[in-house]
Specification:
mainly alpha, Chemotaxis Receptor Methyltransferase Cher, domain 1, 2 domains, two-stranded antiparallel ribbon, 6 helices, 2 strands
């Protein structure tokens, strides 16, 4: 079953407004799939009623968070996506340091779930740093800071 564009746009706007999660155009199909799954799981007969539940019924936040979870990557682990890490260390970091003109470097890993990715970067970068300040990564979800 294909959802009408108008329904998906309303749902996208609701998710952005309530959760701060922006659903990209490329992810609308994933949203439609998640919506169908939530309709089956909640025994909701149609999308209009589901949207009504999310907007007009007290306590709907839990269901909205559940739907939002279908739109995010719920995995995290050390040394994830080696190619990305390598490109970051070899290209992005040196370019940033050169552009800044100093040895200080702060990195925000906004997409981390619990911190493994930024803590993977710290030792890899530190092993290549001769004249740079050490990294002190922060995971914004947990707001924890661990020494590199």
């Amino acid at each position: 079953m294909t959802e009408p564009v108008e329904i998906l746009e309303r749902l996208r706007a609701l998710i952005t407004e309530r959760l701060g999660l922006v659903i990209a155009d490329a992810d609308v199909e994933q949203l439609a799939t998640a919506l169908q799954q939530r309709l089956r799981t909640t025994d909701c007969p149609d999308t209009e009623q589901y949207l009504h539940r999310l907007t007009d019924i007290p306590g709907a936040e839990k269901e909205l968070y559940t739907l939002g979870a279908h739109m995010t990557v719920g995995e995290t682990y050390f040394f994830r996506h080696q190619g990305h890490m390598q490109a970051f260390i070899e290209f992005a970091v040196p370019e940033s340091l050169q552009r800044r003109g100093d040895n200080a470097l702060r990195i925000l890993s906004a997409g981390c779930a619990s911190g493994e990715e930024p803590y993977t970067l710290a030792p890899r970068r530190c092993s290549q740093m001769a004249n740079h300040e050490p990294l002190n990564p922060v995971c914004p979800v947990t707001k924890q800071r661990r020494p590199a």
